[in-house]
Design brief:
About 55% of the residues lie in helices and about 0% in strands. The chain is built from five helices and no strands. The model has no long low-confidence stretch (mean pLDDT about 90).
């Protein structure tokens, strides 16, 4: 469980997101590289959706409409399961 204030601090909120989806810190560095950040952003959204027990539709919502998708995960009926192991599509 992360502190809510971390969501409002630029850059740090992305570092916390990388920690939430259980990926190494170099993923944050990859988000700083143009065009590579698009791929890693989509993979992060997919992984986040899977940790909340959601499917590919939620991944699409998180990528296209993050200001709608993130509050839905935060305030909806989805429950974060830190022990969930998403399928092996994200080997990186």
């Amino acid at each position: 469980r992360e502190d809510a204030w971390a969501a409002f601090i630029p850059i740090y909120n992305t570092i916390v997101m990388v920690d939430i989806i259980k990926k190494p810190i170099w993923w944050f560095i990859m988000l700083l590289i143009p065009f590579v950040n698009i791929i890693f952003g989509i993979m992060m959204a997919d992984r986040l959706a899977r940790f909340f027990g959601k499917d590919t539709l939620m991944t699409v919502v998180l990528v296209l409409f993050p200001y709608i998708g993130l509050p839905v995960l935060a305030f909806g009926d989805a429950v974060y399961n830190p022990n969930a192991l998403p399928d092996d599509r994200n080997k990186i």
